Amino acid sequence: MGQDTYQFEGYTQVLEERNLQSLVKYMKSEECKNVVVMLGAGVSTSAGIPDFRSPETGLYANLARLKLPYPEAVFEINFFRNNPRPFYTLARELMPGKFRPTLTHSFVRLLAAHNLLSKCFTQNIDTLERRAGVPPELIIEAHGSFASQHCIKCKSSYDGDVLRRHILDGKVAICKQKKCGGLVKPDIVFFGEQLPHEFHTSLPRLRDADLLIVMGTSLTVHPFASLASMVSDICPRVLINLDLVGNFGSRSDDVVLLGKTDDVVRDLARELGWEEELDALWKETESSVVDHLAPKKQPEVPVSVKAADIPGQPLVIQGERLKPNGDKEPTPSEEETLKSEVDKLASEIEKALNVSEALGTQEESKSEKATADESGATPAEKEDEVKL
């Protein structure tokens, strides 16, 4: 169970005590009807999505191969206009559908299922809230997402399936509108762009909240970080995080539960009597993972055609492949086929970017990592917890 910690020394106003049991009792009461949730990068790391600055695994630490002037350039709109290829290469690694929503995402959906969720504000651009089944109208993607895409020149929308194909093929998507030819990018908020209109129009939900739950964020960047202070003084606030952040613990009804978000929400669901529902919802997310790199099924060559008539092409007879000389050729496994496709695409992208196999000296690598750690900048307001 998450560790309870707080700094406030006075009496509570709404909760009986500043602990999990009192929180559960309040959530079951008639007083708790409008729950607002804030999500950061920490809720997606267990899905396998790297954050931006973790040593070795952070995205910025692994951008050396893209030959960027500095790591954040990959998310700068002016840099994108001049050279969109680095972003397209990174986007392939972060393609929505590659990752399964976490238990925490399913917990947010569970709040919606119990008619408690008023709004879910997320810094993450990975669309895992949507894939977990949280109603789209309740989600505010503060830093945008891969859910939609537009031309940066004429602002016209672009087909999502076509963009995904371009990303996987290592090609830059160009607007198809007549006489435009602008670059296309997902609706992710880059440096130099405004936050979505929906972010600002949804702020009143915070003032009406009966409970605020903040999970997996460092609360270091505004305006997102300021949301935690917009709820009323008598609105209980809950922090579920690895570390104490922001001004949590300074209000009378702040509850701080330290630990991994998936572990703590399971404890909370168990106390609420929702654990079986939570597990069932999370199980549903298994089908949300999409294999973008799965090779298309090749048409089988009719058995009546001779191998000699198709130089170098094998025949397919009842699932077996025959070499031109008539010998059987073992059918590649799904894993072997996938690896071959990944290697091929990676090779094409690396070649297009002119990236050398030698990534420089150890000192240069350390310098780039240091730059990423010290910069304090991430997409959309330079948040070190913003996720892809």
From TrEMBL:
Cofactor binding summary note: Binds 1 zinc ion per subunit.
Cofactor(s) the record lists: Zn(2+)
Keyword Mitochondrion: yes
Gene Ontology molecular function: histone deacetylase activity, NAD-dependent; NAD+ binding; zinc ion binding
Enzyme class: transferase
Protein residues bound to Zn(2+): 151, 154, 175, 180
Catalytic activity field: N(6)-acetyl-L-lysyl-[protein] + NAD(+) + H2O = 2''-O-acetyl-ADP-D-ribose + nicotinamide + L-lysyl-[protein]
Bilayer-crossing regions: none
SUPFAM superfamilies hit by this protein: DHS-like NAD/FAD-binding domain
Gene3D superfamilies for this protein: SIR2/SIRT2 'Small Domain, TPP-binding domain
InterPro entries in UniProt: DHS-like_NAD/FAD-binding_dom, NAD-dep_sirtuin_deacylases, Sirtuin, Sirtuin_cat_small_dom_sf, Sirtuin_class_I, Ssirtuin_cat_dom
Domain Deacetylase sirtuin-type: 13-275
UniProt GO cellular component terms: mitochondrion; nucleus
Keywords noted in UniProt: Metal-binding, Mitochondrion, NAD, Transferase, Zinc
Region described as Disordered: 314-341, 353-388
Main location: mitochondrion
EC numbers on record: 2.3.1.286
Binding residues for NAD(+): 41-45, 51-53, 123-126, 217-218, 241-243
Domain of life of the native organism: Eukaryota
Catalytic site: 143 (proton acceptor)
Basic and acidic residues: compositionally biased ranges: 320-341, 363-372
Subcellular localization(s) per the UniProt record: Mitochondrion
Record family assignment: Belongs to the sirtuin family. Class I subfamily.
Annotated PANTHER family: NAD-DEPENDENT PROTEIN DEACETYLASE SIRTUIN-2, NAD-DEPENDENT PROTEIN DEACYLASE SIRTUIN-5, MITOCHONDRIAL-RELATED
Protein name: NAD-dependent protein deacetylase
Organism of origin: Cristinia sonorae
